[in-house]
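Entry 14. Ran structure prediction on the chain below.
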Amino acid sequence: MANTHITANYVPTGNDWQVTVTAGEDHKTVRAPGLIAARDQAEQLIDELAPTKAGRVVIHLLNGDGFAFTTAYLQARHGLSDEATQQAARAAVGHANQVPAT
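Output, structure tokens:
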């Protein structure tokens, strides 16, 4: 599946995170405790769906928003609690929804 556009969409579900990885018509879903663990699980699913790394493009999203995922993931990587990470994610989604379309 070279040159395959892959999305990994993360959704907070209670204390866990659900991530759905989609590559073309194929998709797999998994739950993990914490965003870092969800990101690790997403990498495993990505490797299952598109084992060839050459030309592979992966876009990570939080509820469909790449900016929100990046914000939440960086918060989590810097040691903030899952609650703080989810708050950052909600704030990023809220900010993205307020930015006027160009």
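The chain has a mean pLDDT of 83. Will compare against last week's run tomorrow.
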